[in-house]
Design brief:
Largest sheet: 5 strands, antiparallel
Oligomer: single chain
Radius of gyration: 22 Å
Order of helices and strands: HEEHEHEHHHHEEHEEEHEHEEHE
Helix content: 25-40%
Number of helices: 11
Strand order of the largest sheet: 2-1-9-8-7
Number of strands: 13
Distance between the termini: 68 Å
Shape: globular
Length: 370
């Protein structure tokens, strides 16, 4: 058995080396525990391309969970969204699309126009504001090298992430919103008489594959987050910057195989034989979901602050109290001084005053701000 593992390890090193010049970074992790099983260049900055849409959908799922959206709601298509290129549904300005159809359009077809529709409807009509919220939430769930400039992953020099961060984001969707995971496993989807096929070819070719998202731009090249379940275990691979679709699929397949081999046999991860081999880091730390994500951060409106605390845990406890008393979806906002403020944003003046008054009757200090 020991000889088998040695031979397998040598084979894996040689097979990965054959592709090593053809991609930028890879990471394989146990999706349930967050343990990294294998990685190369996982902390290097890369352009995430349409893997960005994982965060766009994360925020959409949060809005559904907190009843700011319903699957049967209809979203308005702006002229800006209608003008989005290059991958799109071709929605006309002024038309509408159901929320569930929008989710499928983004998850299956990676439609840039629909990603912008979601962004604008969730963030007061401005995609730039939504991108700022994306970055804020990324920081909240532990992404340390990610900055978003748009909702779709279209090229921008400041729009960056890493394999480790993408893995953490993907795991956050899996753990925080399991009821919506099914959308990432849809192989084809028909809308207005046209059928769209998922670009993740592993959904059809790899046993147990159930997600997750492809990406491509001229700068980023081909990327893929792939997930699969086998014998009760779940493995996730992240491949960034592959030179072709075939290499992306082949490397993803090898990485998933490697993950299942390690989990199934207890074998130690294979050492990377190259010039840069960062130590495995658990991608699940920290993986706490923000208590609530408010889509409008005081965009010309009124807000209420319900105290500032020295620890995030104390602030999150206050968020729960505020929600139970006022019904508001407050958020925790780190302040420049290092304190953690509990705030509800984007309210009308009357709603803010009423919420603060209700909080005060329960001995919660608060103030209204503009």
């Amino acid at each position: 058995m020991k000889r088998f593992f040695i031979l397998y390890s040598l084979f894996f090193i040689l097979s990965v080396s054959a592709f090593a010049a053809d991609y930028n970074a890879v990471l394989v992790a146990d999706l349930d525990t967050g343990k990294v099983l294998y990685s190369e260049n996982a902390n290097d900055l890369n352009y995430p391309a349409s893997l960005t849409k994982i965060m766009t959908l994360y925020l959409t799922f949060d809005a559904l969970e907190h009843k700011r959206l319903n699957l049967d709601d209809h979203l308005i298509v702006s002229q800006s969204a209608a003008n989005a290129l290059p991958v799109k549904l071709g929605l006309a300005a002024g038309s509408k699309i159901r929320v569930e159809d929008a989710i499928k359009a983004v998850a299956v077809h990676s439609a840039n126009d629909v990603a912008r529709v979601l962004a604008e409807n969730l963030k007061g009509g401005k995609e730039g504001n939504f991108a700022s919220l994306m970055t804020q939430v990324a920081t909240e769930i532990g992404l340390s090298k990610t900055n978003f400039e748009n909702s779709s992953g279209l090229p921008d020099d400041d729009h960056l992430s890493s394999a480790r961060d993408i893995a953490l984001l993907s795991m956050a969707v899996y753990k925080h919103f399991p009821q919506y995971w099914k959308y990432f496993g849809i192989q084809s989807w028909t809308y207005n008489g046209q059928t769209y096929t998922n670009g993740n070819r592993l959904l059809a070719s790899y046993p147990g594959c159930d997600g997750m998202k492809t990406g491509y731009t001229n700068k980023s090249k081909y990327s893929l987050v792939a997930t699969a379940k086998r014998d009760g275990r779940r493995v996730m691979s992240v491949v960034l910057g592959a030179q072709t679709k075939d290499i992306r699929a082949a490397v993803s397949t090898r990485m998933l195989d490697k993950g299942f081999t390690i989990l199934g046999t207890g074998a130690a991860p294979v050492a990377v034989q190259n010039n840069y081999a960062p130590p495995p880091v658990a991608v699940t730390k920290p993986l706490s979901k923000p208590a609530a994500i408010v889509p409008v951060q005081n965009a010309g409106g009124t807000g209420v602050q319900f105290g500032a605390f020295g620890s995030r845990a104390a602030a999150e406890s206050q968020v729960t109290r505020v929600r139970n008393i006022t019904g508001l979806s407050a958020v925790v906002e780190p302040s420049p001084s290092g304190m953690f403020r509990v705030r509800a944003n984007g309210l009308s003046e009357s709603a803010a005053q009423s919420a603060c008054q209700a909080a005060k009757t329960q001995q919660i200090d608060c103030f209204v701000f503009h």
